[in-house]
Design goal:
This protein has 308 residues and is mainly alpha-helical. The protein has 14 helices and no strands. It has helices spanning 2-11, 14-34, 36-47, 55-66, 75-104, 109-140, 148-159, 162-165, 168-198, 207-240, 247-254, 256-261, 264-288, 301-304. Helix 5 (75-104) packs antiparallel against helix 6 (109-140), helix 6 (109-140) packs across helix 7 (148-159) and helix 9 (168-198) packs antiparallel against helix 10 (207-240). The radius of gyration is 20 Å and the shape is globular.
Length: 308
């Protein structure tokens, strides 16, 4: 009993949140870097769906017209920007998930998951927004810049500080629903698998089993979140490349159906593996640091703070 309470205290310590932040940075930064070619194709499909009509023909067109190096445009913004993004997203989610039950008292678990993920995501988007502004332009405008070093001063000179954050509201529109659905679906999926399929407590499963459940729940969460967030993802690309001035103009021009379907196949190809791998890497880092994997029913922070 003493060992369990000691581990619970560690779960809600400053060190625990630090590990979650570093784990989020590494898992998000590396996975987003790895899928840079798919991200380049996705953005170009959103801007010119006729020219880039499918995944195979789109890659072929980019390769022939701009060379193989074009597939890795924006890699530095992906790695560093989404590293900061992942650190805020995962680290702050764990923090808020422990904070809100203490502040708000007993609440529905889904409400806590929604509120915690939305709070963390709001901060994460502020962190990544300048990097995203550079990334989209580098990927779709070959003559804009080579990367972050020349991209930041060029964008600042042309549009000022506002140029880095004019896509923040569409980012929130894309990421807040995605994050709320993704984290909640993940938490409930993990809980369902342990309770109804495995029918064992997490503590009674091996680390390999726990990480397998993390991957299964992560893939499920990614699929649901991708559908919900696709319209805002399309709008972000249109606004950053000045095809439309605002959200209403973009919706009116391409139609509601196209917002949900444009580039959706490539986003499934992108988001599904990325989110699954992020959860796997994230939980692997936690396991290597002696912490339990994510999800499932944990002790409340206020219980963990009680003396043994």
């Amino acid at each position: 009993m003493k060992r369990v309470e000691s581990r619970s205290r560690e779960e809600f310590s400053t060190g625990y949140y630090g590990i979650c932040t570093v784990g989020g940075m590494l898992s998000a930064g590396t996975t987003h870097l790895a899928i840079t070619p798919l991200d380049v194709l996705k953005v170009n499909m959103q801007l010119d769906p006729i020219k880039y009509s499918s995944i195979s023909s789109g890659f072929s067109t980019l390769w022939k017209e701009q060379g193989p190096s074009s597939l890795w445009r924006g890699w530095s913004a992906k790695f560093f920007g989404y590293g900061a993004y992942g650190g805020c997203r995962f680290g702050l989610y764990e923090y808020f998930k422990g904070l809100y039950p203490r502040v708000l008292g007993d609440q529905n678990r889904t409400f806590i998951f929604f509120l915690s993920s939305a709070s963390a995501q709001a901060v994460a988007d502020v962190a990544v927004c300048p990097f995203e502004a550079i990334k989209v332009r580098v990927q779709t405008q070959p003559n804009f810049a080579k990367g972050l070093i020349d991209g930041f001063p060029k964008l600042y000179k042309a549009e000022g500080l506002a140029g880095f954050y004019k896509g923040l509201c569409p980012l929130w529109g894309r990421d807040l629903p995605f994050s709320m659905i993704m984290f909640s679906t993940f938490e409930h999926s993990v809980d369902f698998i342990y309770r109804s399929i495995i029918q064992q407590r997490k503590e009674d499963c091996s680390r390999a089993q726990q990480l397998g459940i993390t991957c299964l729940a992560g893939g499920t969460a990614a699929a649901v979140g991708t559908i919900v967030s696709n319209p805002a993802d399309v709008i972000i690309s249109l606004i950053y490349n000045k095809q439309d001035k605002n959200v209403l103009q973009a919706v009116k021009r391409i139609g509601l159906v196209n917002l949900f379907t444009r580039s959706l196949p490539v986003r499934f190809t992108l988001v599904g593996p990325v989110i699954t791998l992020q959860w796997f890497f994230y939980d692997t880092i936690k396991v290597l640091c002696g912490l339990p994997t994510s999800g499932g029913v944990n002790r409340k922070p206020q219980e963990a703070n009680l003396s043994s």
